[in-house]
Fold:
Amino acid sequence: MSPFRAIAAAALLAAAASLSAGELPQEQRRSGYSFMGPDSRAMQDDDTSNPGMLFVLDGEALWNKKTGHAEKACADCHGDGRESMKGVAVRYPAFDKALGRPVTIEQRINLERTRHQEAPPLAYESRDLLALAAFVVNQSRGMPIIAGDDPELKPFVEKGRELFMQRQGQLNLACANCHDANWDKRLAGSPVTQAHPTGYPIYRLEWQSLGSLERRLRSCITGVRAQAYEYGAPELVDLELYLMSRARGMKLEAPAVRP
Amino acid sequence: MPSALINVPPKAKRGDIIEIKTLMSHTMESGFRRTSAGELVPRDIITSFTCRYNGTEIFRADFFPAIAANPFLSFFTVAKESGKFEFEWIGDNGFASTASASIRVE
Structure:
């Protein structure tokens, strides 16, 4: 093998290794917050300027509102959500025994509605579902993420990881090509970031609204010109689970503001 | 259920310049967007905001379609006396919402 070829092979090997290694050491993990400008940070830091907090307020009102045939409110079983929901969101997506697979916070809220309140499930990305999710997740703000700890979740974390590493779409890009290999660079002037979902549901200025991690994933998938999975699809939930387990130990900051 | 977030310092020294911040929940639909079927989405925005300090109007703003959803306003006034700030938002389709906050001036 010529010296040039050896170097090229070594470079290829190194690239392959960095792609499969994936996980950054804890001290190098950064929230999307740290990539933002001072104005966006200030907007998130002050609860009276963070528009996500409007959804948290609405969510608290819904928490206490009776609904469905059972005429029950979330509060009738769970009491004061400000207390009972502390530390719940940091372990989501969590394993649901009846379904035998992980469910997101939004799916959990809808399962509770159908199973206990006898109410119809709320549509994905509807204001009420986002508001309830924001209220629940907000109670764990500042707590470290522990998602994916449950041994029953292991195969699903692995599936999510495979999806993260798999090239797809007309642009033939895997999530890892940007968010592991090029997170310190820019795409069309915006920071690429490390894809640690520490602040969902987020208030995205571009959306002019709150949105879930699934919405964010779908727009990324559309961005590489692949066919996006439907809301609630097992693939999206597995991916969400992998991303949350990857952000383990980082502090939850929902509802975060992102440009 | 329109909700608002208000930030007024609970107390201030007489003569202090204080910052007042308000955030109102509203979609601010511009009236220029179309549905996937091509129909125009009717305009639905807040058109005016007023702030009164113990009954006297100290700040007013007119809103237009180019203003983003959930409008955030920040403005300043001089703390003159203890009392109440009253906020009022008025908009399309009979939208009207009020909020208030009190301040103690020493």
In short: Chain B has a mean pLDDT of 95. The beta strands of chain B are 4-7, 11-12, 17-24, 46-53, 56-62, 72-78, 83-91, 96-105.
